[in-house]
Each structure stands twice: as C-alpha cells, then as structure tokens.
C-alpha cells in the first residue's frame, strides 16, 4: 500500500506554491491562512524538509519545495484532465502511446490497421515526439523508448534492435549506371546526414560508417567529407532518400516498410550497430489491461 502524505497537506502546499501566498491559497480552498500554514507544517514534518522560507514575506519555496512542487502540480493536472476527459462525452479514453517521431511515422503508423482489426474497442493516441515524456506525471500511458541500453525504473520490454546501413532509392543506382563494389563507390553519390541529438560518440553516422569502411577499403579517404544534404529531422532525411536525392545511413527498422516494398535498397552491406526499441510503462497503471494488450500486439509485429 502506498504511504502518502495527507491529501489536504498536498493540496495546501500545491495551492500556496502556485499562488505564492498562504492567504490566496486559503481563499481558493475555503479555509483560513492558519489552516494552510498548519497543513504545510504537517507536510514538512512528513518530508523531513522545510518547503517554504516564510520570512521575509511573501513565502518563497526552498530547494526541497521547488523539487516537490512540479510533481504535485503535474499530478493534480493529470487527475483533473482524466476526470474532465471522462465527463466530456462518455467516449472511450484513448491509450496514449509516445514514440520517437521517425519510428511512429515509418514503422508504427503503417501497422495501425492491424491494431484496429484486433482491438477495435481500444482507441490509440499516438504522440510522435523525440522528447522523453514523463510517464510518472501522466503525460502518456506507455512509451516506446529508443536507447542503447534498457531503461530502468519501469516495466520494460525490448521490442527489437536495429542496424544501420547506407540506404538509397534503386532509381539513384539505375541513374548512376555503375555497380557499387567498394565502400568508396558511395562517394559518387550525395551523402545525406541527419542530426543525432545525443552525445553518444558511437552513434551510427556517416562519419562513423566511413571510418569503419576505411579499415576494409584503403582507397576510402573521405572521413571528413562534407555532407551534400544535412537535416535536423531524421524523417526529412528519409524523405530525401526516397526522392532519390542521395544516400543516408538509416535504421533497417525505421525504413523496414520501404525495404520490403523495394522503395529503398541497401546500397552497401557494411552496417553499424544501432539501439534498442523498448516498450516502457509504469508498474502500476490504471490502463494495465490496455497496456498489456498493446505490449502483446507490438511484440508480435515484424
């Protein structure tokens, strides 16, 4: 059983922190300022930390209070949103799934008809974002995380791992009219780069691929080659590749649909290891049954 502080103490603290005044908090909660002060002192005793500097006035959050306030604010906002959502129309509340943009667009969305066929009564809301949404504060019900190692602190299942290859449109190769026999042959084509918002020195970029390829192809002298096209977003780089504008180092998972259909091909067999796609959820989730259904479904997808 969770050991939580009294709800009145949490409400008093959240209101006082948000409004910057014990008096304003008292007016909002229809109690006296003395009652607000009393409830906050109870919370401070429970936490073992002072949450407000009371003098000089107005009260100011301490470091401990500043850390606690965002969690309470987001928690109360999530509760209000959940209740309002249930009361709006009686419509089923969608299971909110957050996913990296490129994975959502290229891998997940094309497979959603199979989800609707199997689970017609469970609506989904796909939140495509490369930001890490906070499951604890209720920003999403389940997350697909892309990481080199398994995330901790949650219930986690590995969906798959990817590998990165030089990928291009077959039309680009036909237009060139020559076969690619060595890694250095790729330098005849525009190289398309996209930003990795990570400090991982082993991220599968063109620079990393060229350095690796140079070990097996001594004629390759282009580790510092300037990219013909560079994009901030991975999806835009893939769009450029599909349009036949060049070659990019792409995830075989993210572009699996295009590889199967023949829209894209592997320009060279040399690959770089990628990361894992992980399904992440809270251990105790009010949507547990729906999360389990989604986990089972996505685990069975290829």
Automatic annotation (TrEMBL):
Keywords: DNA-binding, Transcription, Transcription regulation. GO terms for biological process: DNA-templated transcription. GO terms for molecular function: DNA-binding transcription factor activity; sequence-specific DNA binding. InterPro entries: LysR-type_TF_proteobact-type, LysR_HTH_N, LysR_subst-bd, WH-like_DNA-bd_sf, WH_DNA-bd_sf. SUPFAM superfamilies: Periplasmic binding protein-like II, Winged helix' DNA-binding domain. Residues 5-62 form the HTH lysR-type domain. PANTHER family: HTH-TYPE TRANSCRIPTIONAL REGULATOR, HTH-TYPE TRANSCRIPTIONAL REGULATOR TRPI. Belongs to the LysR transcriptional regulatory family. This is LysR family transcriptional regulator.
């Amino acid at each position: 059983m969770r050991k939580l502080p009294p709800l009145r103490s949490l409400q008093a603290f959240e209101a006082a922190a948000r409004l910057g005044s014990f008096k304003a908090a008292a007016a909002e909660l229809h109690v006296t300022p003395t009652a607000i002060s009393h409830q906050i002192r109870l919370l401070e005793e429970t936490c073992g930390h002072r949450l407000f500097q009371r003098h000089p006035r107005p009260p100011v959050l301490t470091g401990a209070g500043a850390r606690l306030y965002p969690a309470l604010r987001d928690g109360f906002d999530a509760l209000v949103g959940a209740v309002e959502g249930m009361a709006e129309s009686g419509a089923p509340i969608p299971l909110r799934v957050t996913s990296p943009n490129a994975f959502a667009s290229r891998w997940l969305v094309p497979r959603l008809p199979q989800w609707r066929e199997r689970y017609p009564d469970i609506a989904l809301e796909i939140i495509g974002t490369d930001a890490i949404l906070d499951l604890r504060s209720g920003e999403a019900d389940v997350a697909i995380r892309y990481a080199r190692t398994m995330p901790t602190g949650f219930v986690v299942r590995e969906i798959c791992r990817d590998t990165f290859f030089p990928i291009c449109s077959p039309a680009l190769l036909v237009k060139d009219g020559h076969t690619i026999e060595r890694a250095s042959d790729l330098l005849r084509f525009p190289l398309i780069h996209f930003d990795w918002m990570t400090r991982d020195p082993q991220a599968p970029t063109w620079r990393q691929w060229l350095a690796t390829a140079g070990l097996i192809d001594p004629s390759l002298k282009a580790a510092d080659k300037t990219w013909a096209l560079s994009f901030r977003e991975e999806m835009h780089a893939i769009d450029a590749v599909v349009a036949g504008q060049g070659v990019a180092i792409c995830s075989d998972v993210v572009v699996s649909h295009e590889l199967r259909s023949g829209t894209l091909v592997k320009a060279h067999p040399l690959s770089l290891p990628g990361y894992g796609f992980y399904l992440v959820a809270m251990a105790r989730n009010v949507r547990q049954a729906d999360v389990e259904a989604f986990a089972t479904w996505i685990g069975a997808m290829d």
